Amino acid sequence: MKRFLFLPLLLAATTLLMQCSPDKPVNPDPVPGNGNGNGNSDGKGAPQAKGTPDGTVFRKKIGAAGGTIEYPGGRLTLILPAGAIENETEFIIQPITNTTPGGKGLAYRLQPEALTFKKPATLQIKYTEEDLNGTIPSALGIATQKADGIWYAQGAVHREAEKTIEVKTTHFSDWSFFEAISLEPHLSVADLGQQVTLAVKYVLPGSDDDLLVPLTKEGQEAALVDPKTLLDPKFVGEWTLQGSGTLAGTGNTGKYTAPAKIPAVNPALAIVNIKSKGKAVGMVMARIFTAPEGISVSIAGGDYTTYGNAGGHITTGESFVMADQNGTTASVKWNGKSTGKFAWNATNILFLLNIGTSKTYAQVYNAGGEAVPSPGEVEVMETGNVGGWIIGTFQLQKSGYFIFTTPPTTGTTTVKGLFKVKRLN
């Protein structure tokens, strides 16, 4: 009996994940890329709403000797040189929603806003590989929002080896991190045979020959334009595809057509070469998964099966997606952040596939009577707003299975899959 001790854990996890029954979601209409098509603007910029608080306030006091303020997590750092201020001052960093055209992640409200520094402070923002999805390092920048509501890119020093961008400032306001060039959408999930419209976007004013001058020269600034503006085709080179499906791209727009079945290698990568002053400056890429709505599962390298009637819940500390179709239920649960990579464990990072009452697959397997988590992980890439998509992938190198025969049969196998479900809360 000892070798079947992990069955109670599977049943308990099943109960945990099946607490809520999702309503059947509705497919949204695809959103095509749009814009004026020439990459130029009047240079006046596009006013945006003020960001709203979205995170924990951080406070620190600094005096005339100067000092460093680092927001927890290391994304944003402020360095005040000696003599920048005369008296000890409490500085406040408030994360806010990012309304910047091309904005990435959160923006930050730095206070006291009325204070002017006698010597410029240095503002640093650190980026990750994930921030490069859909863009290139040289197109990343820092912007500040002024009283007119327009975000202005600031000439910055880009330290690519350290993945850091920094600007000088003598005052506080709202500051953000943005991408000047991007291939949109960065991430999408296409239904079988569906077309996805891709567009190369640009949020800086039009340039005669150099795309990146406002981002690379200190002391310069540029008003950011409508985020729907398309990059001038003269800066766009070849479109290529890595993976299944077909891609037809000309100038600043392209169309990807998904294959008729979920491919073994998923996602496909759409790649566009970007050039400036007649020279290549990098490539922008977009990831396109192929899967119908629901939770799609491949067992032991076989074809994918998609389970519909699916939905998902994103809550503080605990989230899950679930499908329930024709007696089969499939569920993935994770704890902590709403997005990211999560290694399987025996308590709160769970996978369950119950095929009727005959067979169960899970994120644990039996090893000497112990329930051992499978190598592998779930990656949640997008959660969206209520009614939007929750998108993710998962893979288990040793998923434990339990077949309800007499006597019962257990073993391990490989499982991989992806989910594209509507967010219900």
What does this entry look like structurally?
There is one protein chain. The protein has a domain at 2-27 and 293-422. 4% of the residues lie in helices and 50% in strands. It has helices spanning 7-17, 213-216, and strands at residues 58-62, 67-70, 76-80, 89-96, 107-111, 116-126, 140-145, 151-154, 157-159, 164-171, 174-179, 181-184, 187-190, 195-202, 221-223, 236-242, 246-250, 253-257, 268-276, 279-290, 294-299, 305-307, 310-315, 317-325, 328-336, 340-343, 350-355, 359-362, 364-367, 370-373, 376-382, 389-403, 409-422. The strands form 6 sheets. Strands 21, 22, 23, 24, 25, 26, 27, 28, 31, 32 and 33 form an 11-stranded antiparallel sheet that branches. It is globular.
Compile the SSE list and pairings.
Elements: H1 7-17, E1 58-62, E2 67-70, E3 76-80, E4 89-96, E5 107-111, E6 116-126, E7 140-145, E8 151-154, E9 157-159, E10 164-171, E11 174-179, E12 181-184, E13 187-190, E14 195-202, H2 213-216, E15 221-223, E16 236-242, E17 246-250, E18 253-257, E19 268-276, E20 279-290, E21 294-299, E22 305-307, E23 310-315, E24 317-325, E25 328-336, E26 340-343, E27 350-355, E28 359-362, E29 364-367, E30 370-373, E31 376-382, E32 389-403, E33 409-422
Parallel strand pairs: 13-20
Antiparallel strand pairs: 1-4, 2-3, 3-6, 4-5, 5-11, 6-10, 7-8, 7-11, 8-15, 9-10, 12-14, 14-18, 16-19, 17-18, 19-20, 21-22, 21-33, 23-24, 24-25, 25-27, 26-31, 27-28, 28-32, 29-30, 31-32, 32-33
